[in-house]
Amino acid sequence: MSVYHPFMSNQTTRRDVLKKGGLAAASLGVLGFPEWALPALAQGETVVPFTDLPATPINLTPTVDRRIIDISKIAGPITPRDAFFTTQHYGHPEVDPVAWRLKIDGLVDRPLSISLDELKKMGNEEITFGFECSGNRRPLQGLSSNGRWTGVRLRDVLEKAGLKADAREIVFFGADKGPEEVEFRGTVHKVEQHFGRSLPREKALTNEPMLAYAMNGEPLTKHQGFPVRLLVPGWYGVANLKWLTEIHAQTDPFVGKWQARWYRTLRGEMINGELKWTENSITHMRPKSFVARVTKAGNAHRVFGVILNDGTPIKAIEVKVDNGPWQAAQIDSATREKFGWKFFSYTWNGATPGEHTVVSRVTQADGLVQPTVEELANKKTFLEDNSQHERKVNIT
Ligand SMILES: Nc1nc2c(c(=O)[nH]1)N[C@H]1C(S)=C(S)[C@@H](COP(=O)(O)O)O[C@H]1N2
Ligand SMILES: [Mo]
Question: Is the beta carbon of 136 within 6 A of some atom in ligand 1?
Answer without folding.
Answer: no
